[in-house]
Amino acid sequence: MRQRHIFGTVFTVEAAIAGAVFLAVLGLLAWTLLRHRGGHPPARAAERAERPRLEAYYVGALAAFAVFLVAWTAWQNHREHPAAGPRPLRVDVTGFQWCWTFRYPGSPAHRSVTGTCKGRDMPTLVVPAGRTVQLRLTSRDVVHSLWVPGLRYKTDAFPHHVNTLTLTLDRAGRWRGRCAEFCGRRHHTMDFWIKAVPPRAYDRWAHGGTATA
Amino acid sequence: MTVAPPARPRPDDSGRSVPPGGWLGWISTTDHKRVGLLTAGTSLVLLLLMGVLALLMRAQLARPEETFLGPHLYDQVFTVHGSGMIYLVMTPFALGLGVYLVPLQTGAPGIALPRLTLLGYWLYAFGALTLLAGFATPTGAHAAGWFSYPPLADAEFSPGTGSDLWIVGVCLAVTGAILQGWAVLWTILRRRTRGMTMLRLPVFCWAMIATCLMVIGAFPALLAALTLLAAGRADASLFASNAWNIGYQHLFWFYGHPVVYVMFFPYLAAVAEVLAVFCGRRFFGYRGTVLFLLVFAALSMSVWGHHMFATGQAANDYYSLTSIALLVPAGVEYFGMLGTVLGARPRPRTPMLFALAFIPQFLIGGLTGIMVGTPVIDYHVTDSYFVVAHLHYVLFAGSAFGLFAAVYFWFPKVTGVLLDEGMGRLHFWLLVAGTNLTFLPMFALGYLGMPRRVSTYAAFDGFGTLNLLAGIGAAFLAAGMAVFVVNVLRTLHARRLGRARPAGDDPWDGHTLEWAAPSPPPRLNFPADRPLPPVTSFAPLLDLKHREGGRA
Ligand code: HEM
Ligand SMILES: [Cu+2]
Ligand SMILES: [Cu+2]
């Protein structure tokens, strides 16, 4: 959930700044256009084409603002990717045209989930709530991308390469996952579920039982 | 002044021979105005065609679980729409505008490297035909998206001639752009008239300098990427290694980001010229604008990785830094535009309306660009409709509005007659309504989780209403474009019949040298019996008017 919170903060702040800048520019434009409407033309349009000092201050302010944004968002970004910590649960995720396989190398029953992503046959990635999960992402054919819109997180799955992604889901629940990188004819159906269950339920499931949240 | 009869043969630049008239004269011309018109005209026709493909997509997405195109055809349509708009419409139009205007604005009798310029047009035209020919092949056109990442675009996952044609077509078109970029750059550097120092070049010429530097510096990377792709299609084992898969992405975006500015600077500059002319004053902050255009171009070469945050294989902090740093030069350009308008009393003619709308609309694209350049946000929104909204605010609500400002502004220079003002306004208002209705809902769609490049979505996704709104917006856009086409055809028809009212050489009280030439300009641009006005600043005609009016 950490990703979702950090996204929420950064998105809100940046959207608010963007909205303020947009309204300011729009306001300035509207004000000039309306002010001179119908009235006399301004006695004489200002001739001055340069204001070097004003521009220098303005560039300074822009640069300071850019530095703030970069530093602050980079800090948030690093908060989003904490070290995996002790004993994360490892899941090997493989994308393929056009569905997913989730393998649990640490599970006593060697659980592995897959599907066809046709109709209702969508695979479910089961994870324990509250525990750090490390997804090791790869692909069997073309580039795919694992995206869980509700958790605001996405990472690409490449062939011949493993990307890792560390997540902790604080509470039990079920979210829709999708493929975000265009991967061919059935890209639009390449969906899955990610389901967080209480740790006990997860253990039962890892031993071969069913998972109920 | 009467309207000049079409195609009167005149001695050619070198004075050697009389060029042929008629259509042969057009396709073998070394007159920069004709090459410029061929380039820009071809790209306008392709704009309409790509617009039809856009309508097909919007129609399919207007309702959930609609499949009239079918997934494979949908993939071809978005691939050709995206690649067409970028490689065949916005880039060539920008360069065509440069080919037409730069010699006139610098007071030159012709373009440097005229034959290369013409060759550039031919490469572009054949490239466009080649790319579109994909639709006629049994497996259809290319369908792997305009960035065509391997291995999806290799021979195993994208078999078929359509993909080969796409590679060849894009390579031809891009080579044509590089040639025209060289010619325009060389004209500005070497063929300026007396008194036209570098700091007296019009803003548009400076924007073309920055543009051409990016074309020359970055476009070869696309040729390299496509060569790599072609090699991989011949020998599939090439992409059996992550190095080449990720390597292609780096090469591609090294071209792919600068091209965004190639599709922005010339339009921004057209808007700048229009704003200054219709406010009746000098463009504000000229030196800052020029300096920061160059800074912009230089920085643009180091931001490609922000398209790759989610790959996990790019230095995200670094690319975030360079991307967000772009807000400084962008802010300076906005400062200039606003400073020009503030306090003035603009004349609200059609070109000015498009130029004014450009300011807030492009700003939406720019501000959301900062958001997309922030990794934390990008992890969620990349490859979603948020990005589709962002890129259309940049390319359509921004650049295309600049494009129309340019068309309405320079049409009387090119043809000697004005487009109809009433229809121009109708076109404008339909486009404003349509643009925002089409693309604003897409931000929400992306935020809510709709991936891009999906041929349909499920009813329970809840994307139906917003997509329907976007579809209605697209209908407004189509109506607006129909008005534009009718306006242009009707005006040209009236001109041919000699019924159009001549516009005169300088209908808008222009500032730059092209308005001192006759409309349309003769073969060598400035007739000998009409000396060029002295060039005393970047707005020589304005200086002249002030002197005559005893004001300066
Ligand atoms: C100057 C005008 C335009 C330009 C430069 C442009 C450019 C693009 C580009 C580059 C793409 C990405 C294609 C891809 O990712 O492969 C795209 C996609 C798309 N465009 Fe446009 N476009 C323009 C106008 C329009 C209009 C007017 C509409 C709607 C009526 C539209 C609708 C779409 C749609 C629905 C997509 C698919 C998005 C996706 O699935 O990725 N475009 N366009
Ligand atoms: Cu996929
Ligand atoms: Cu996909």
UniProtKB/TrEMBL annotation, chain A:
Gene3D superfamilies: Cupredoxins - blue copper proteins. Keywords: Copper, Electron transport, Membrane, Metal-binding, Transmembrane, Transmembrane helix, Transport. It is found in: Membrane. The chain crosses the membrane at residues 6-34, 55-75. Its main location: membrane. It catalyses: 4 Fe(II)-[cytochrome c] + O2 + 8 H(+)(in) = 4 Fe(III)-[cytochrome c] + 2 H2O + 4 H(+)(out). InterPro entries: CcO_II, CcO_II-like_C, Copper_CuA, Cupredoxin. The keyword Transmembrane applies. SUPFAM superfamilies: Cupredoxins (SSF49503). Residues 86-208 form the Cytochrome oxidase subunit II copper A binding domain. The keyword Transmembrane helix applies. Subunits I and II form the functional core of the enzyme complex. Electrons originating in cytochrome c are transferred via heme a and Cu(A) to the binuclear center formed by heme a3 and Cu(B). Belongs to the cytochrome c oxidase subunit 2 family. This is Cytochrome aa3 subunit 2. It comes from Streptomyces rubradiris. The lineage of its organism: Bacteria, Bacillati, Actinomycetota, Actinomycetes, Kitasatosporales.
